[in-house]
Amino acid sequence: MKMFSVSHKTVFVVDHCPYMAESSRQQVECDVLTKSRGQGVIPLAPVSKSLWTCAVECSMEYCRILYDVYPLHKLINYIVSDSEFHILNSWRQEDQSTHELMSALAAVGPPNPREDPECCSILHGLVAAVESLCKITELQHERRTTLMDTAERVANRGRIICLTNAKSDTHVRMLEDCIQETILEQNKLAAGSDRLMAIQQCDLVLIHIHPQGDDALVSDRPKKEISPLLTSEVHSVRAGRHLATKLNILVQQHFDLASTTITNIPMKEEQHANTSANYDVELLHHRDAHLEFFKSGDLHMAGTSTRENGLKETITLKWCTPRTNSIELHYCTGAYRISPTDVNSRPSSCLTNFLLNGRSVLLEQPRKSGSKVISHMLSSHGGEIFLHVLNSNRSTLEDPPSISEGCGGRVTDYRITDFGEFMRENRLMPVSESSHDPSGKLPVERAKGQLERHTRYWPMIISQTTIFNMQAVVPLANLIVKETLSEEDVLTCQKTVYNLVDMERKNDPLPISTVGSRGKGPKRDEQYRIMWNELETLVKTHAGATDRHQRVLDCIIACRSKPPEEEERKKRGRKREEREDKTEKNGSKDTDDKSWQESERLKGLLDKEEQESEVIKDSPDSPEPLNKKPRLCTEEVQPPERAKGPVSLLTMWSNRITVANSRKHQEFVGRVSSVNNKFELYQQLKDENGMDVHENGKASR
Amino acid sequence: MPTVVLMDVSLSMTRPVSLDGSEEFQRKNLAVHGLNMLFEHMASNYRMEFTALMAFSSLWELLVPFTRDYNALQEALGNLEDYDKTCVESALNGVSNVVQQEWGSACPCQVVLVTDGSLGIGKGSLRHSLHTLKHHGDDKKFPLPFPFPTKLFIMSVANAEELQMTDAMDNLEELLRLSGGDGQIFTMEGPLCMKNVQAMFGRLIDHAYSPFHAVLHCGNLSSDVQVFPRPEPIVMDEEVEPMPRSVNTDLEIVGFIEIADISSPPVISRHLVLPINVNKEVDEVGTGATDELEEEPSASQMAGKSPNFCVLLHGSLKVEGMVALVQLGPEWYGMLYSQADSKKKSNLMMSLFEPGPDPLPWLGKITHLGPISEAAENPYGEDDSKSPFPLQPPVKRSYAQNVTVWIKASGLQTDVQKILRNARKLPDKTQTFYKELNRLRKAALAFGFWELLKGMADLLERECTLLPDSAHPDAAFQLSHAAQQLKLASTGDSQYAAFDHNIAPMHTDFSS
Predict the structure, then answer these.
(1) Contacts of A295 in chain B (CB under 8 A)
(2) Please, what's the largest Cα pairwise distance for chain B?
(3) Which of A20, A163, A398, A428 would best serve as a mutation to test chain B binding (most B beta carbons within 10 A)?
(4) Residue B443 belongs to what H/E stretch?
(5) Cβ within 8 Å of A, B 191-220
(6) In whole angstroms, how far apart are CA A488 and each of A55, A493, B300?
(7) pTM above threshold 0.90
(8) Run of H or E including A589
(9) Segment B30-80, tens digit of pLDDT
(10) What is the C-alpha to C-alpha distance for residues A173 and A175, in angstroms, rounded to an integer?
(11) Around B432, how many Cα atoms within 13 Å sit in the side-chain half-sphere?
(12) ipTM of this complex
């Protein structure tokens, strides 16, 4: 269906003249007495609906089905006509609901039988209907605005459904002529207005309602063209059930609907709760849900039945008792909203409630051969029930090469779990259209932005990465990808870096892959060098984002070059390797380090800031010249610290933590007397060897 | 999209082609040469396509049923025999049967009709078929248009001038129009020779059988892929947007959604997403499946060993039970997911949603899906126990909101009886009694059914007189109060008949 077909706009014009107050002469027995209470009670006389009541309830049923199946873009304008016209709602989307219309109808009330019939006419309403069709809808306006220079592609068509009691065929012709004239007049007006559009096509559906038992004064007439702008059809119907059936057929014709009957629905009996009987429920939906049947010519073969007056067909599909709620992605070629034909009957509401509670039901297509073919599925999404069409044909994509046989298929150490975690973090959520983001970007663009940030450095296989295999890096890796960092985030990142520094000092092993290399893989300090490089690569890709990101990078660059003992140790270590002096690594290191430790001690361990400046002095030793620039940056960020000289965040942070911690407990002897967090164990052994190690401990002071 | 090759094997195809060289060719030889070239191309670049070969003259025969075995197709081409006259209509009926039997009536199909443009004489000729089109009975309809979406390619082993000398070209054009207009007529350019027939089939290949290559992006991660079958351009509303929309060659992942949340969405087509190695000359598709030879470390094996994003994505989608939402173009989206063909084999698949800003009502507008990191609280919950989907529509559907319909008498009777049942259980059921009463009152007012209000009031008054002596005194008060209120409403007096007004229980105090 085209977006702006005739069914985009429907105007109901309902006659509210005095004769509509007449009884339909179809009586409803509403006082159904039970046997036990029957004695001595006079039952209430049956009530009968007026022609007006019949017209209103049947038109409301038309609207109910329409709104169920098309909640958007199929609009109704409801007009009531007596001595003047009353427009009950507008084309606006918020006015499109049965509740709105019922409320407005209640305000109008039934026709007043005492009103002067001479002043009343359906014409008032019909003229208003044509005027209303010229009014632009929200969707027309929106599309015209977006199409700009091709705005003329937005068509203006509509349908008028007139429920009235006409006097004769001549009367009907008079009404048609009047509508034709009004269209021409209104189109002239519309040409000069922005908010009006000329009518290109108007379908008039005139329904003549007469009471039961009366002869119809108006004859049925199939659709005919009155002019290129106007077609007209006439239906002469008895009020009551016949009118309801007629409008039900019309809503199906007007909106391309079709009917499906779900059969074999097991339902508990009201009276006997432990037995169940099978029920049928009829649903209406877009007819494309039956496309496959129509095309294959299976329509008559597959359980169709023609009912009542031969105008209505339904396709029968069999209920398949659902299995446990398995989450599965069905290959579904269409999903269409449904509306039950008999919405408040017990079988209908049992079925709809079952579905609304989140269960899905597969439907089976009855076939003569007896083979079982699941062709449809009923399922609700957010309080709306859809009939899904499942593909039951052979797939053209069967037996494809497995992904493991193609590019990258032989690689076995993909970071599947990590990418799974990545996907969870990059799940989507609906963002309300009213919420405004300061960046001015649409939510989906922000989602893409997040994906971009999260993948700036993302090695795909385990053997390509060290840092993502380390639990210790997780806090930093999670934070650095954020668009903005809080002060606290920066601290956490720095903490992570210090933790790594600590690991390096402790010479903790790293989860470096040994795949592809022979022997034990790279040396430990080489491992750390690889790790630091990788970490720096990760953080560098984000450093440009904000100053805080840059500070994290600064921290890494600063830390990996310090404390100098590490660098020295490495250098010496390498030298030692050259000398092939591989034994007594710790011992020799210890003695080598002593001179530095001594000088350090002289400068005083208590004043950590002093120590920091010492570190700066040492920094030229480190090979990376990068060191200097970030330092400056840090200073710029923290001008208050300038007076005291260059102070890194490490110092500030560790000072704070140390102070805080020291209040809480008595410090370990080893830590108190440590140098650079190192305390030599088994000192007494050295004492025995006559070596002086007291300088290592505070206690010796 | 499966292909049916419909080969004309009538006598006219054996007409010799005048050549300067020593060897003499028939038109059939040229056609077979062209088809061989097509099959070779498909075998290496379009391997996943199912192709069937049919031969026709006055009768038709399915020589090779739908297969991916292009050797079998080529072999069958080598064994073609010559028959009598051309009868296109019966052959098309054959195509219709063969396709529907195999794929049903929804699967789009390509039909390659190879003929020499001599379309038969007398009854059964295409001219005759087209002339008598209108006189066909309902039971013997002309086979076009096919029930399934069709692309019809007519390969004529004749040049355009030759076809235009007779009405052959007009008839072929009419045939194309009848099939729905999607397709093309290819004719030979220049003299009939091997080179020119190659050129003609080359044009067909470029037009319909060139593989669709794209780059799949997820932020900075990416992979070169072939999308099979080729996503075809589509027109959504020829009036508002007559230009067909095509899938971008950059497919951009926008985020991820749980399978349960996307819940079997309707799709317009499904495609395999096969990672490819663009550095190579020959495309990778399908070689893994069939090349079990592995003589030397081929380029495909090398490609197998370097990590590919598609494989990573596929693995994680499979393990996590999620789909990736992918943007295909402006306001056009699809999803990527793992599809298992059997227990061992699974693949990365892409399904295309209908173009538009909100293809799935339960997800809302795709442009308004944002990263969960922006939410104050993870909408999925810390333990994935919740979900922000599905989206609730602003207005409930009729079946979800207890609407009142009295079109059938039983509907009205049920509502009246419900009120009476509750009336007898007053004052215990006061709340339900008034709820049902107000529901009836609202509907009666909207439908202008004041007679019912009066009738209901009478019924309540009668219930009042029938109350047993043991009844609570409040019951009588509530019943007469309700009856009185209904009567007032039935006068249409705006003070009592307002739609939004509700009859409230009478305030009584029997506690003392």
Answers:
(1) 105-106, 147-148
(2) 124
(3) A428
(4) helix B430-446
(5) 218-220
(6) 68, 9, 49
(7) no
(8) helix A585-603
(9) 899 999 999 999 998 888 899 999 999 888 999 999 999 999 999 998 888
(10) 5
(11) 14
(12) 0.89
